[in-house]
Amino acid sequence: MFERFTDRARTTVTTAKVEADALGHHAIGTEHLVLAMLAGDGGIAHTVLRASGLDPDSWRAMLAAGDDAAALRSIGIDIDAVRSSIEQTFGPGALERAEPAERGGFLFRRTKIPTRFNNGAKKALELSLRVALSMKHNYIGTEHILLGVLKEERGLGARLLREQGMSYDRTMELVQTALKNAA
């Protein structure tokens, strides 16, 4: 499938892995694909996302904060109060991730857990091909990945984009305008 990807689309996929790793996530999700498009140095998706008022720093901050705090708040759990209570009992930084101890030698090699695509990201990439074909394009560009993320709907990337006012139909209009302007 990646043989149809433009260079920018391939860079988006590899950058999504780098971003997921940097955030300490063990799976690449649709949210990482969006972040990679935002952080990229061009392309139709980058243009559309930036024109919609999104930027990589605020997107990264949303991902770092996680959507867990909002979910817990919705059921009446104040994560800041829980953190404070734990740190009073166990000391400051008790909830911070500890790096595993370095072990040397033949039997104990430090290994990193490989980052893989989650089901939502896999589906979004599959849908990007369908979007490209429906637009009668013989390539998959960043614009198709962006539309694939929105078409997937259940992923965190699509949910956050919708919260920022980006629907599939409106984004398709923006993509088509950007494609005309680029031609």
Would you write up a description of this structure?
By secondary structure, this protein is mainly α. It is built from 10 helices and 2 strands. The chain has a two-stranded parallel ribbon with strand order 1-2. Helix 1 crosses helix 2, helix 2 (30-39) packs antiparallel against helix 8 (142-152) and helix 8 (142-152) packs antiparallel against helix 10 (168-182). The longest helix has 16 residues, at 7-22. The model is unreliable at 99-103 and 106-111 (pLDDT under 50). GO terms for molecular function: peptidase activity. Keywords: Hydrolase, Protease, Repeat.
- How many beta-strand elements? 2
CATH topology: Double Clp-N motif
Order of helices and strands: HEHHHHHEHHHH
Q: Beta-sheet strand percentage?
A: under 5%
Q: State the separation between the terminal residues, measured CA to CA.
A: 25 Å
- The secondary-structure class comes to mainly alpha
Total tally of structural domains: 1
Helix content: 55-70%
Give the CATH class.
Mainly Alpha
Continuous helix count: 10
Summed over residues and divided by their number, the pLDDT gives a mean of 83
Low-confidence stretches: 99-103, 106-111
CATH superfamily: Clp, N-terminal domain
Largest sheet: 2 strands, parallel
The gyration radius over C-alpha positions equals 19 Å
Shape: elongated
GO molecular function: peptidase activity
Pfam family, one: Clp_N
Domain Clp R: 2-181
GO biological process, one term: proteolysis
